[in-house]
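Final report, closing paragraph on structural work. Over the funding period we assembled a curated collection of sequence-structure pairs, and we close with a single example.
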Amino acid sequence: MKFAAIVSSLIFSASVLAHGGGLDRSGCHHDRKAGGYHCHRGTLTGEQAGPRAAAYDREDYLPRWADADGDCQNTRQEVLIAESRVAVTLGPGKCRVIAGQWHDPYTGRVFTDPRDLDIDHLVPLKEAHDSGAASWPLSRKRAYANDLSHPEALIAVYNGANRAKGARDPAAWLPSNAAYRCAYVRAWTQVKDHWGLIMDRAEAKTVTAILENCQ
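Its predicted structure, as stored:
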C-alpha cells in the first residue's frame, strides 16, 4: 500500500508541471506566468533557473564525477568501495579502485575488475530530466547526478547491462535478473519520490503492476 500511494502521487499531471503557486517536495515551483523555476523553502531557497530547457544535455548533470569530500576518490570510486563485497584494492595514490568483488543485481553476475562496471543512475539522468528535472538549478542537477546519500540512487552494475538499459524506464526495460525486479522497481519509486520526479502513465502502470505481485 505504501508504494501504491507513492506511485499515485507521482503520476503525470499537467498541473504538477505548470502551475503558479504550489510548491514541490523541494520547496520549489514552476512559474507559469513569468517562466522558470524557483525555490521558496528548503536547501535551495532563493535559487532560480531560467525558462525550462527543452533539450537534455548530460553535461548539465555530470560533466565529471564529483569528489564531494575532497579525498581524491570521486563518486564512482566511492560507490565501488561501498558496494564491494570484499575490501577493495586501491591504486597508487589511493584514489582509484583497481580490484574488489561486486555482485551486479541486473544480471546476477559477480565481477572483480571495476573496468567491467558502470555506476548506473538507477533513474537515468535523461529520465530525470524528462520527469521534472529539466528546470532544476544547475546545483540540484549535479547533486542528483552524484547522490551518495541514498544507496539505491547509484549502483555498480555490469556495463553491458547499463548500456542496454540506456535512459529507459521500467515500462521499456527491466533487469534480466528476474529475482531483482521487485527491488529495482521499489528503488525506482523511492528515488523518484525523494527527488520529486513524476511518472508518466505507462511507467506508473508498469510499476504498479509489478509491485502488486511483490511480497
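The CA atoms of residues 18 and 128 lie 17 Å apart. Residues 13-21, 47-52 have pLDDT under 50 and may be disordered. We thank the funder for supporting this effort.
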